[in-house]
Amino acid sequence: MSGPESDKMVDLATDLISSPLGKLISFFATGFFQPQYKISGMVQKTGLHYSCWVKVYRRKVMFGSWERQFSAQQCTELQEQLAFEVALHLKEEVDGN
Hints:
Distance between the termini: 64 Å
Number of strands: 3
Largest sheet: 3 strands, antiparallel
Number of helices: 3
Low-confidence stretches: none
Strand order of the largest sheet: 1-2-3
Number of domains: 2
Mean pLDDT: 76
Helix content: 40-55%
Oligomer: single chain
Strand content: 25-35%
Radius of gyration: 22 Å
Order of helices and strands: HHEEEH
């Protein structure tokens, strides 16, 4: 009994990825197709309160940051408000450039 044979496309992709040309293509593809904007953040729960930090970067340079603290009861509405604030800030930045 023999095991399943690998598909020829899988073999081709494996050869291409492991070849020096494949690594070069991968390097340029990731370098050229990086997003212009990056949003990072953190939410921390302390007792009945949440702290939320959001940072917005453009090409690795931070141009906006927010910090909000809210109770568990306000969590949903203030998270939506913060998301709207960040989106509005990004839209203004994109429209300005």
